[in-house]
Specification:
11 strands, disordered N terminus, Helicase, Ruva Protein, domain 3, alpha/beta, 2 domains, two-stranded antiparallel sheet, five-stranded parallel sheet, elongated
């Protein structure tokens, strides 16, 4: 029989705040290799690609909700910890171009821009650094690659091949600082590993596919989802009945979806003054 249903409102609210101050999706977030469930082959391929003297670019292919980005980041951190000479001081840079972004905005964000600004009677040049330079000796992760036009992708491939980004029209004057002259003539460093997250491989032009390793992620089966649900509930200090766990695993479309459902039923349990999740919570 369910207990503590008549728990005072203030006590229930405090319990909710204590247990879900950090959402369950954050509690189960992949931060290290040991947190990854059911993607052994993908992890092996990524680690192998990143451990090379010249790390390979990667296409992360697979269904939504399988935490491809978080798995990639965990692999990156592991390789860094192992003492990778390439990634020693590199960063994990993320970019999410949206459909409403202009082509110019995406281009400038990725590659930077040389701008002229008026200063008294002079025109001074200012260099805006793009993500390809920020990702130098690191990883540039791009989601929503389907929102990037092909000519921008071709430019990205050129940068990957040359390992630097150059600016087309440049104007060097006596007022141009020495360091800027060198960057304008030689280009900015952009030696990085590209990782692109896609659901449909057709969204990647052939020119990019030829320089990438395709790493496929599996749809999480019921066994993996059930293990994920139990571990997440445990991290949130919840006890979940087996039949509830089975039902969530049966209807969830992915790991992310399973955690979203678990968050909902956990909140309902707490509203009723329980840290035990029961079947009735699924009906709320």
């Amino acid at each position: 029989m369910t207990q503590n249903i008549m728990m005072p409102y203030e006590v229930r609210q405090r319990l909710i705040q204590e247990r879900l101050a950090e959402p369950l999706k954050e509690k189960c977030r992949i931060r290290q290799i040991e947190d990854i469930l059911g993607q052994d082959e993908a992890v092996f391929r990524i680690l192998n690609d990143l451990r090379k003297d010249r790390p390979k670019n990667i296409v992360l292919l697979g269904p939504e909700g399988t935490w491809k980005k978080d798995i990639l980041r965990a692999c990156f951190k592991k390789v860094q910890y192992e003492g990778s000479s390439f990634f020693k001081n590199g960063e994990f840079i993320e970019y999410y171009p949206e459909k409403n972004y202009s082509d110019d905005l995406i281009y400038t964000t990725l590659f930077g821009r040389l701008e002229e600004i008026d200063c008294a009677s002079m025109k001074l040049q200012r260099l805006k650094i793009g993500l390809v330079t920020r990702a130098n000796k690191g990883i540039l992760y791009i989601n929503n690659i389907e929102n990037v036009k092909e000519y921008v992708i071709f430019k990205l491939v050129d940068v990957l091949n040359e390992k630097k980004v150059k600016f087309g029209k440049i104007r060097i004057s006596e007022a141009t600082p020495g360091y800027l002259k060198r960057f304008l003539t030689e280009g900015l460093p952009a030696d990085f590993c590209l990782a692109v997250n896609v659901i449909d491989i057709k969204s990647i032009p052939e020119d990019m596919l030829t320089i990438c390793d395709i790493v496929s992620f599996k749809k999480q089966d019921k066994r993996v989802l059930k293990e994920l649900i139990k571990k997440t509930a445990d991290k949130g200090l919840f006890y979940i009945e087996d039949d509830v766990c089975d039902e969530i695993a049966s209807v969830a479309k992915s790991g992310e979806d399973a955690v979203r459902i678990l968050q909902h039923v956990a909140l309902n349990a707490l509203k009723n003054g329980r840290s035990k999740i029961i079947k009735e919570d699924l009906k709320a």
